[in-house]
UniProtKB/TrEMBL annotation:
This is DNA methylase adenine-specific domain-containing protein. It comes from the Bacteria. Coiled coil: none annotated. InterPro entries: DNA_Protect_Modify, SAM-dependent_MTases_sf. It comes from Faecalibacterium cf. prausnitzii KLE1255.
Length: 194
């Protein structure tokens, strides 16, 4: 795994089942020839959608022309041995490899697919911005196509009486210094701000 993909996998492990994780990453998470990390993520989470940003999305604040993706995943209850289409690569009309999700959902690409020469003279896929388009408006539209439902976690609030009984709160003994331990009836207690 690349360092990006390692942290994505760890983030998925850390959220509760049904929790949603959103990543901003380079296009290589989705477009890499090696599908190992995508397969790992797909076994643990459903892809709710992804948005491919134009190559100038981070130019103003990072000074870079890089194609980036926003990926939305929802953690499964348990890992599943599946390989959905987005794990694999498809092809553009020009024969360039692109994630199958974007091949199936071109509306989620916020620009025009084109090619550019790299510093090594190789042609590489890029996403040129649409002339006159407002990226914020494009994002607002694309987010409407992200599928899935978020369910709030049900948190049981314990009864105050139960909490106090569990903590065994006692009135403070004035002879015991604050932030120190004492023994009362064979049990150890800690005095803290009381």
């Amino acid at each position: 795994f690349s360092i990006h993909n390692y942290f994505f996998a760890k983030a998925i492990d850390q959220v509760r089942p049904g929790g949603i994780v959103a990543f901003v990453t380079s296009r290589y998470t989705m477009d890499s020839k090696d599908s190992t990390s995508r397969k790992h993520m797909a076994e643990r989470a459903d892809l709710l959608g992804a948005i491919r940003l134009p190559n100038n999305a981070f130019k103003a604040n990072a000074g870079t022309d890089v194609v980036s993706d926003i990926i939305f995943l929802q953690k499964r209850d348990r890992p599943a041995n599946i390989e959905p289409a987005w794990v694999q690569l498809g092809k553009t009309e020009d024969g360039f490899a692109i994630n199958q999700y974007f091949a199936d959902h071109p509306e989620m690409i916020l620009g025009v697919l084109s090619t550019e020469s790299t510093q090594y003279g190789r042609e590489e896929l890029t996403v040129a911005p649409i002339e006159g388009a407002n990226l914020a408006d494009q994002l607002a539209e694309a987010v409407q196509h992200i599928e899935g439902q978020y369910t709030e976690v049900e948190v049981e609030t314990p009864d105050i009486a139960d909490v106090e009984n569990e903590k065994h709160i006692l009135p403070a003994d004035p002879d015991v210094k604050n932030f120190s331990y004492t023994v009362v009836d064979g049990e150890v207690f800690y005095r803290e701000n009381s």
